[in-house]
Design brief:
Layout: H1 11-41, H2 45-76, H3 81-109, H4 120-143, H5 146-171, H6 177-202
Helix pairs in contact: 1-2, 1-3, 1-4, 2-3, 3-6, 4-5, 4-6, 5-6
Length: about 220
């Protein structure tokens, strides 16, 4: 693994890795609550409280990650610099997973409801694919498994084009505006969650200067 060469095993770095995994799993919790709302649960005080509470935990962990990275930099100097720079970059990706998951809950607040949708099975299949991606990514990063990270990125990259296609289809549909907008945003948020998870995975095998590769559409990637 590329970053194993730089990883010194310092307590700060270990803390950062643990917090990044926790943030990703918390993002999955926000995602679960949010998709439950648009698939029949609807908006509620309980769901809103859960989403906001977990989001605050994610944001606090992001701050703690940055503090730990700064502490490691001050103590270790340049010894862990590539790793510090990589984690400083991808912590924002992990935080954005929670943000986009939270955006899905906003759809329920605005009246989007897929409960009786004719294509509900398909919408749920995309939901399940992203949920599985979050689980697998947390496991892969916790293990720092480079081979599986490559496999996960390759698999997930195929979904990005699919989400783009679905966004285009829904924005050109002639059905009710709420249905079209709700689906377009749903697929857009799934795409953004997927891209940010992929960025995290690339921190396990790409050099620092090539991170954020999957935050761009394929045609715009360097």
């Amino acid at each position: 693994m590329v970053l194993d060469f730089f990883r010194s095993g310092t307590s700060q770095i270990e803390e950062v890795e643990t917090r990044l995994v926790t943030m990703l799993r918390d993002g999955r919790r926000v995602f679960d609550t949010s998709v439950a709302a648009v698939f029949g649960g609807g908006k509620s005080r309980e769901a809103k409280s859960t989403v906001k509470s977990i989001d605050r935990e994610i944001n606090e962990n992001q701050r703690e990650v940055r503090r730990a990275l700064m502490m490691s930099a001050s103590v270790r100097g340049t010894a862990d610099l590539p790793l510090i720079l990589a984690y400083m970059s991808v912590v924002k990706d992990v935080e954005r997973v929670g943000d986009y998951a939270k955006n899905i809950y906003d759809l329920a607040k605005y009246g989007v409801d897929f409960t009786t949708a004719a294509d509900r099975d398909e919408l749920e299949a995309y939901r399940d694919a992203v949920a599985k991606l979050l689980d697998e990514a947390a496991e892969v990063f916790a293990e720092r498994n480079t081979e599986r990270a490559h496999e996960l990125v390759t698999k997930a990259d195929r979904f990005l084009s699919e989400y783009n296609r679905r966004v285009k289809e829904t924005t050109m549909s002639e059905g009710p505006v709420l249905d079209a907008v709700g689906r377009a945003l749903y697929f857009r948020y799934l795409k953004r969650i997927t891209a940010h998870v992929m960025n995290l995975m690339t921190s396990l095998f790409l050099p620092v200067d090539q991170l954020d590769h999957y935050d761009e559409d394929p045609d715009d990637r360097l």
